Amino acid sequence: xxxxxxxxxxxxxxxxxxxxxxxxxxxxxYQAVKPQYPDLSLGTVYRNIARFKEEGLILSIGxxxxxxxxxxxxxxxxxxxxxxxxxxLDLTERYLSDDVHQILSQKYGxxxxxxELIFRGVCQECSEKSVSSGxxxx
Amino acid sequence: xxxxxxxxxxxxxxxxxxxxxxxxxxxxxYQAVKPQYPDLSLGTVYRNIARFKEEGLILSIGxxxxxxxxxxxxxxxxxxxxxxxxxxLDLTERYLSDDVHQILSQKYGxxxxxxELIFRGVCQECSEKSVSSGxxxx
DNA sequence: AATGCCATCGAGAATAATTCTTATTTTTAT
DNA sequence: ATAAAAATAAGAATTATTCTCGATGGCATT
Lengths: 138, 138
Description:
2 copies of one chain form a homodimer. Helices cover about 40% and strands about 25% of the residues of chain A. By secondary structure, chain A is an alpha+beta fold. The interface of A and B includes residues 101, 108, 118, 122 and 124 of A. The structure holds a DNA duplex (30 and 30 nucleotides).
């Protein structure tokens, strides 16, 4: 009875987001799904991403270099963002237990429901580039 | 000899950002400084904000509801962002020591230089509104 | 006070990501 | 098969931000 209400394109968009580690932009998703559905529209990607976010199927990492980045892995984990190339990496370390939400909620009278922890710096690849081109390393 | 290189408008923009707790947008800063300098241009606000960021005089909290938010307090601290009204609050609790940067840098071969920890949820004010209007509470 | 020099600025055009609108197409229920 | 509902394509519209460039401001030297 209960319908899945998932069109093929919608499904393909979700799978594209879930099936990559790059924490893609809307444009990336569009380019990724386009080959399979050549009549895909960028508006459809945006519309469905907004929907996935509301439904909790994906998460937003935030805006990196002017473009919003998404994550199909909704398990709690943290990220590292490279200031040079904008790449987003997953970090497996856990730093905060979820009871901090409770504690903060009580202290501030708010409803704290989630947190995000983002580390910033220069990734290994960009660090090496900088060294070889003499930008920083020596 | 060494000139301060700070025009009055630039100084006023920096002071506006430093003198508020609201973690303002560029537009907010523009409106705040405009009365004192009626010929202020929004482009000047953006230009100087970009410069302050590069110089490390202010920090970017990230994009909230489509607008970038800034913080004149560069001491390490964390934030709570209300998903309803977009307000940004300071949290004084410290959760991470800075040696995690070292540890992560070694583990990933990157240069981790900073982190940001953001809690999300509904602030007290918005929570109360929701209750009285029957949106969630009752 | 006048001059020269650059940093800074204003105004608005340009850009780019995202959202919105509407007609059309696809999907689902009957 | 057909009608109703949901989803989509195309592109216009919106909006925050950046860019361009001619004009202005502020300081140093005269």
